[in-house]
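User: Run a structure prediction on this.
Assistant: Running it now.
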Amino acid sequence: MLYKKTEFKFFIVIACLMVGLIACKNKQFVESDEDVALYDTKEFLSFYERFGTDSLFQMQHIIFPLEGIRSLQDSLDVVGPDFKWEEDSWVVHGPFDDMNGQFNREFLSMKGIVIEKISDQSGSFSMERRFGRLSSGWYLIYYREMGKY
């Protein structure tokens, strides 16, 4: 009987240690996740700057056919829900220019994806790009062209 009580106490001690280790590990992960947003990491900022200034690099870091939405050309234009950007018709994107404060840019991080939203001051016109981290680096994975949505 004494043997079983000792064994039970040993089991409780081991279980408490395991729970403590898991709790500490999860806490460290959460804290480091909150300290630096994905779009503020050195790795993403370096990628983002090069993406806007190096056209060859940009083309190599887009997943074609690229999901997204093109802007409507006129009131009769219709864009299908399965629209994709193709490599042969891609217009290279330059670095962000706020045009003397006429445009705002905001970044969000969600589950390993950086979402960039750019809009005019009135909020009437906007665009969105989504960047994802794959095993070989960052890539543009979605693009909604500047337009009225």
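Residues 2-35 form the longest helix (34 residues).
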